Amino acid sequence: MIVSESLSQKAESLAERLGLSYDRLLGVRFAINVLIASSIVWFTLGALRDTAPIWAIASLVAASDPEPQQARQLFRSRMINVLVGCVVGFLFLLLGSGKPRMVPVALAVTVLISTYLVRVKTMWRQAPITAAIVIAASLFSASTTVGLQRGLHRVAEVVFGSVVGILVSWLMSKIWLVRTPADRSTKT
Length: 188
What we know:
The chain is mostly helical. Helix content is 80%, strand content 0%.
């Protein structure tokens, strides 16, 4: 792609003139990824009258990465552990009726399932975080059904944010690929 090669070369030239290292250039690209993705999420959920886009924003940041291969790996790991957290969170909602005393037990069980059964280490923390989001969304609900609906809504926000984060990372890697110093020296 000629446009992306040109943009990448211009960015690399600018980075060299400014004395930016590869990591600093990645940081600039990551900031641009987050700016674009968070704008998409914020305004999309705002247009849908979603009252708390912060879960989606946090998820897109966690799923984003300026290096495409790393972003794909994070996304896959994140989705697997989100699923584990959802299942355990919903089971605990059904069994414990969304009582606050169930949260620590649910989190511990989620960690054990994620680490011993699923074993996708990259995003182990995501499973208990998702279980907490699901359960917390229902804690102050009048009924288990409303709690389940709120939990599902929060999970949808997390998944939406993750998908936007990975898509923006992928698109940006096609428009502006930040090459490692070793890749730059072999192509010149």
